[in-house]
Each structure stands twice: as C-alpha cells, then as structure tokens.
Amino acid sequence: MKIQKKLPKYKLQPLRIPSGWETSYNSLTELDPELLNKDDYDKWLNFTEDLLQIKNSKKNILLDVGWYPEADPEGVYGLDVVEDFNWENPVTSFETKQKGELIEKIELLMWQLS
C-alpha cells in the first residue's frame, strides 16, 4: 500500500533562522491576513494559535507565534519569547496584524537572542 503525501495547500513563510535555533513546528504560511476577504473561510482556518515554535536549546528560550483568536479575521499575530518554560512571564510579547512586521520581529529576536 502506497501512502500518498500531498504538499501543503499554501507555501510556508520563508525565514532566516540563525544557527543554534531549531524548529519545533511550523505552519506559518505565506498567506497575508491583510489581503484576505473575511469570507475566505478555508484560508482563515490556516490562522491557528499554533503557527510557529522555534527554540534555542542552549539558552532554553522558545519563540512562539500564533493567531488570536484562532481563525478570526479580526485577530492578530501574537509572539511570545519564553525562557525556562515560564509561560506566565514571557521575556517579551508582541502583537501585530501585519505579516511583514511579524517576520521582521521574529528574525530580529532570533539574532538578538542568539
């Protein structure tokens, strides 16, 4: 029996990830929420609370990205940097609706925290 694997419907968002970081999971796509219509339901389902998690094991730091509220066209990207799994007190938090601003912040934080 052959298992058929399909490529994801939307391309993953390219990121510049410095050495020392590894991806725990990634479903952050190139979809831009500012370019979607509110009635593009199938596309909004890609905007979940678990979009991206990248970790630096040497420094015990996690960078976590999600969309809040999940699948809501009125939502925002939320980014938290967590040290030593202290989710109650993130090192830094950031919210934006702009995809470019999110990517810039992710890449900047990874370089600063490396």
Account of the 3D structure:
The protein is of the alpha+beta class and 114 residues long. It has one domain (22-113). Helices cover 17% and strands 27% of the residues. Strands 1-2-3-4-5 form a 5-stranded antiparallel sheet, covered by helices on one side. Strand 2 and strand 3 (61-68) form a beta hairpin. The N and C termini lie far apart (45 Å).
Q: For the largest beta sheet, what order do the strands appear in spatially?
A: 1-2-3-4-5
Question: How many separate structural domains?
Answer: 1
The major β-sheet equals: 5 strands, antiparallel
**Could you give the count of β-strands?**
5
Strand content: 25-35%
Radius of gyration: 15 Å
Q: What general form does the structure show?
A: globular
Number of helices: 2
Low-confidence stretches: none
Brief summary of the model shown:
This protein is an alpha+beta fold and 114 residues long. The chain has two helices and five strands, in the order E-H-E-E-E-E-H.
